[in-house]
């Protein structure tokens, strides 16, 4: 039994100009202890898919799926109260832009304590000890002092570490990291990736890494899902994807990497046709070849 299994997930938004299909029949499977990367350019539906799983999309969104199970439990059939017990405890998410995700009106210690108070039975002293333990684990210096710091008093990298501490506070079985290294310098990016993969290995978590950075994919992933304009183009293990991609869009995406450039100009990825069969996810979908 897979840790997470989603089949034929679609998301449609009601807009002033009419319905907009953000996702069309995508599939995801994650095993315990596995790292799944969801890769694609901006607007490909990576974050929307995970927000649909978390139940965090606005009321204007219509979410449908043939299957959405976590450890065999159908998430679609859970009451709102029961779903809240699963989301945030067994399934947790690190959102983009940590400074925007943290509440500026509360200390980081309060925000960590809030997660523990909601999902555990620890008393106040035990929660404070756990908060300091978590801040230490994610590499925050002087954690006893930083408990009382506000987000604006910390750097972007430190805020990202706090977000990771909040997301892992209850030892989730599945962690979703949405562009966890965005807007961080290269040195901090490496530290954050090492931290995430270290936590994943130590706790045996499933990890979904949302990214458009193929370097992150190569370094961290076991399997990869490639998306384009809300559709699934290819699913493969990471070695196969880089050495023998089967989909024209995946090939174009890889050819656009700077290290693959020949001459003075980088290759570009064409605007691929959308007349392929949605939801196959096996590399059989077709599109126009990339221009160079």
From TrEMBL:
Chief location of this protein within or outside the cell: membrane
Q: Which domain of life is it from?
A: Bacteria
Q: Which Pfam families match?
A: ABC_tran (PF00005), oligo_HPY (PF08352)
**Which key words tag this protein in UniProt?**
ATP-binding, Cell membrane, Membrane, Nucleotide-binding, Transport
Q: InterPro entries, from UniProt?
A: AAA+_ATPase, ABC_Ni/Peptide_Import, ABC_transporter-like_ATP-bd, ABC_transporter-like_CS, Oligopep_ABC_C, P-loop_NTPase
Can you cite an annotated GO cellular component?
plasma membrane
Q: Among the record's GO biological process terms, what is one?
A: transmembrane transport
GO molecular function annotation: ATP binding; ATP hydrolysis activity
Where is this protein localized, as stated in its record?
A: Cell inner membrane
Family the UniProt entry places it in = Belongs to the ABC transporter superfamily.
Which named protein is this?
Answer: Dipeptide transport system ATP-binding protein
Query: Which species is listed as the source?
Result: Stappia indica
């Amino acid at each position: 039994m897979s840790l997470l299994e989603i089949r034929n997930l679609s998301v449609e938004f009601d807009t002033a100009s009419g319905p907009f299909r953000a996702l069309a029949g995508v599939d995801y499977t994650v095993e315990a202890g596995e790292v799944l990367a969801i890769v694609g350019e901006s607007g490909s539906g990576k974050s929307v898919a995970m927000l649909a799983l978390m139940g965090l999309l606005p009321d204007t969104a219509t979410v449908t799926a043939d299957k959405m199970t976590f450890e065999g439990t159908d998430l679609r059939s859970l009451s709102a109260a029961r779903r809240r017990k699963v989301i945030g405890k067994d399934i947790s998410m690190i959102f983009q832009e940590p400074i925007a995700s943290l509440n500026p009106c509360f200390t980081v210690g309060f925000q960590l304590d809030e997660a523990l108070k909601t999902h555990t039975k620890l008393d106040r002293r035990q929660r404070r000890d756990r908060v300091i333990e978590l801040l230490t684990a994610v590499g925050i210096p002087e954690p006893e002092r930083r408990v009382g710091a506000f987000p604006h008093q910390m750097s972007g990298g430190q805020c990202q570490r706090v977000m990771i501490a909040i997301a892992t506070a209850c030892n989730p079985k599945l962690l979703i990291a949405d562009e966890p290294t965005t807007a961080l310098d290269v040195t901090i990016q490496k530290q954050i990736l090492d931290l995430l993969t270290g936590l994943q290995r130590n706790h045996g978590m499933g990890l979904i890494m949302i990214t458009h950075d193929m370097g992150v994919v190569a370094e961290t992933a076991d399997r990869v899902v490639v998306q384009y304009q809300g559709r699934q183009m290819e699913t493969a293990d990471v070695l196969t994807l880089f050495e023998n991609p089967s989909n024209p869009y995946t090939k174009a995406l890889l050819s656009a990497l700077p290290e693959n450039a020949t001459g003075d100009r980088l290759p570009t990825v064409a605007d691929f046709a959308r007349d392929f069969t949605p939801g196959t996810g096996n590399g059989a979908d077709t599109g126009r070849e990339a221009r160079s």
